[in-house]
Recover the amino acids of this structure.
């Protein structure tokens, strides 16, 4: 049996963990998928955003018309877009594997790892042992709870497969109302498909500030048919080859939908069951989330975990941060560092974009934390005038006792970029007065919408007047 200093399971963030600091250690890297490099590179963040950019261009035609420019959308050449995207990504993945296989100190094992005992892994017929083991096995799409006829396998997809399809479907039904559903609804609708989004609950992008999720649903609803409070009960094939979905709402009423493609975007499950964690004594929650402390250590001292399999946040920037913590701690188990999960931001690359960091208004009310709220419309700053912006806004929430931001929520153009200075302010403990007046804000650039929202917070604060002051800059 081969023995290693470190064994890493999963080639996504797990592969990035093995940097030059490990060069004097013998490392095993195990990957069960034929594709090397994990979700973000091959079927997640990166290819989806590469579809979103052409979708943004296609969607801009209707925006242009409002500004007096007569553009025409002819068609999206799906095979060309797909081949361009994967023509770039697939070689990166293959090159990454090739480079790794040529690393002097790393042995790549192709197969599914499972524990035999706390220090031993089985990978097919192979058995390896390691002093320390890192679990970086990620997550996968949650399968539908209803049977899908085998004959429909090429028409009922998840995010793993949908980006590789051969042609743009005419009618798309998306099941789910989270990040994946929101981003693919934008892509397919912009490219000209007729999109119906069916969600089990009555909110899209649950977990966002209520004002954002309501405004987002309204905006997306202008381009996509949105059906809430319904779940699929049956999926069958029609004679003409289309997919027939029957859904049922809370009152037991049934609805029929017909599609050329169905995207199941109903959430993700963590890849932990194949690991046989019981054999190693690693604690895992009933939903499959491996339990770790802030040093990324499991309850078994030499076993660490990071990323989707153990994190509360299924986001690549969080997996990367946890990977950096785990890398340090594997190398310095007696001098560990912790992952900072205080201000984890996220962005949804749909149309409109949504981005947020920190607490929502409803959370602060529930927690009884005093707060001031300011809302600033994009349409009321100079760049927003140029955009003729309608309906997009920044919502900031701060604690008036120390003027620190508690939450920032943005829906609109470049939200994923505009949120960054707010993340920075929260991470580096910058106060609202310092942030708003302690620096120049380029005029007439879009970040003035953030500047004005910050000033709105200060203006909203009328001590003794009301418990939760709000600046209605609308
Ligand atoms: C469609 C989509 C879009 C996304 N967009 C974004 C985005 O814009 N921004 C963002 O921050 N996040 C995004 N995410 C989330 C992001 O992709 C994940 O949070 C991130 O990739 C998780 O990384 P990881 O290293 O934990 O797992 P992964 O990258 O999934 O790597 C885990 C690897 O482990 C392997 N594995 C699993 N079990 C075993 C086993 N027993 N033995 C051997 N190998 C095993 C898997 O095959 C996989 O290759 C997106 C996700 C999806 C699905
Ligand atoms: N831009 C990004 O950062 C990005 C993009 C994509 C994914 N991700 C990550 O991946 C995670 C998973 O995304 P996701 O969208 O798959 O999951 P999600 O958990 O965000 O959303 C799942 C949605 O499906 C709905 N749903 C569940 N069961 C259903 C059913 N039977 N019928 C209809 N609707 C049903 C839920 O109500 C919910 O709205 C996200 O939470 C996010 O962390 C991030």
């Amino acid at each position: 049996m081969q023995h290693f200093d470190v064994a890493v399971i999963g080639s996504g963030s797990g592969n990035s963990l093995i940097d030059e600091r490990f060069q004097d250690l013998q490392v095993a890297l195990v990957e069960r998928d034929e594709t090397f490099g994990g979700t973000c590179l091959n079927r997640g963040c990166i290819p989806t955003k590469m579809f979103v950019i052409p979708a943004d261009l296609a969607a801009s035609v209707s925006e242009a018309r409002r500004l007096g420019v007569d553009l025409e959308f002819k068609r999206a050449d799906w095979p060309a877009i797909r081949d361009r995207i994967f023509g770039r990504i697939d070689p990166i993945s293959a090159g990454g594997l090739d480079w790794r296989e040529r690393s002097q100190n790393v042995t790549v094992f192709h197969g599914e790892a499972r524990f035999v005992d706390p220090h031993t892994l089985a990978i097919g017929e192979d058995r390896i042992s390691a002093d320390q083991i890192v679990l970086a096995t990620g997550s996968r799409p949650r399968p539908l709870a209803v049977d899908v006829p085998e004959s429909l396998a090429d028409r009922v997809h998840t995010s793993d497969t949908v980006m590789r399809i051969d042609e743009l479907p005419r009618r798309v039904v998306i099941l789910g109302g989270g990040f994946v559903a929101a981003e693919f609804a934008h892509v397919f609708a912009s490219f000209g498909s007729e999109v119906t989004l069916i969600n089990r609950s009555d909110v899209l992008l649950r977990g966002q500030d209520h004002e954002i999720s309501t405004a987002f649903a309204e905006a997306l609803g202008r381009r996509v048919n949105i059906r809430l409070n319904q779940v699929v009960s049956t999926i069958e094939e029609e004679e003409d080859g289309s997919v027939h979905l029957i859904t049922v709402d809370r009152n037991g009423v049934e609805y029929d939908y017909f599609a050329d493609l169905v995207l199941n975007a109903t959430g993700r499950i963590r890849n932990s069951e194949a690991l046989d964690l019981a054999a190693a004594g690693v604690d895992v929650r009933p939903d499959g989330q491996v339990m770790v402390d802030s040093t990324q250590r499991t309850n078994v001292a030499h076993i660490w975990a990071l990323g989707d399999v153990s994190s509360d946040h299924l986001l690549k920037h969080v997996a990367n941060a946890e990977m950096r913590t785990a890398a340090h701690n594997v190398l310095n188990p007696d001098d560990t560092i912790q992952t900072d999960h205080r201000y984890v931001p996220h962005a949804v690359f749909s149309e409109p974009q949504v981005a947020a960091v920190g607490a929502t208004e409803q959370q602060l009310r529930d927690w009884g934390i005093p707060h001031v709220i300011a809302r600033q419309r994009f349409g009321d700053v100079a760049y927003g005038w140029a955009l003729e912006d309608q309906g997009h806004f920044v919502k900031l929430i701060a604690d008036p006792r120390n003027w620190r931001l508690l939450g920032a929520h943005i829906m609109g153009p470049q939200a994923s970029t505009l949120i960054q200075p707010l993340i920075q302010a929260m991470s580096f403990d910058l106060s609202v007065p310092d942030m708003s007046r302690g620096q120049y804000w380029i005029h007439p650039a879009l970040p003035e919408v953030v500047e004005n929202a910050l000033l709105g917070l200060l203006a909203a604060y009328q001590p003794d007047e009301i418990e939760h002051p709000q600046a209605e800059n609308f």
Remarks:
- Residues 228 and 449 are 32 Å apart (CA to CA).
